[in-house]
Amino acid sequence: MLANVFTQEEKISSQINEAIQKVSLPDDWVDKMLNELEKEKKENSIISLFSSKDK
């Protein structure tokens, strides 16, 4: 009986992992997007700095 519970839990866990992977982004995409976000933050900081000097 106990072994049956573990088997069912393993099946459910596997199904959840499969479902998550269908909607997850690949790691290399995440890295690229995070790098682009950092670039944008730096650019916006520079733009903000220069626009505040103009005032």
Please compute the radius of gyration using only Cα atoms.
23 Å
Judged by helices, strands and strand pairing, the structural class is: mainly alpha
Unreliable stretches (pLDDT < 50, length at least 5) are none
The number of helices is 2
| Strands, count | 0
Largest sheet: none
Shape call: rod-shaped
Q: What is the straight-line distance between the termini? A: 75 Å
| Oligomeric status | single chain
- Average per-residue pLDDT, rounded, comes to 88
Task: Please describe what this structure looks like.
The chain has helices at 2-23, 27-54. The mean pLDDT is 88. The chain has a domain at 25-55. The protein is mostly helical. 91% of the residues lie in helices and 0% in strands.
Looking at this protein, list some descriptive labels.
55 residues, mainly alpha, 91% helix
Tell me briefly what this model is.
With 55 residues, the chain is mostly helical. 91% of the residues lie in helices and 0% in strands.
Please give the structural blueprint.
Elements: H1 2-23, H2 27-54
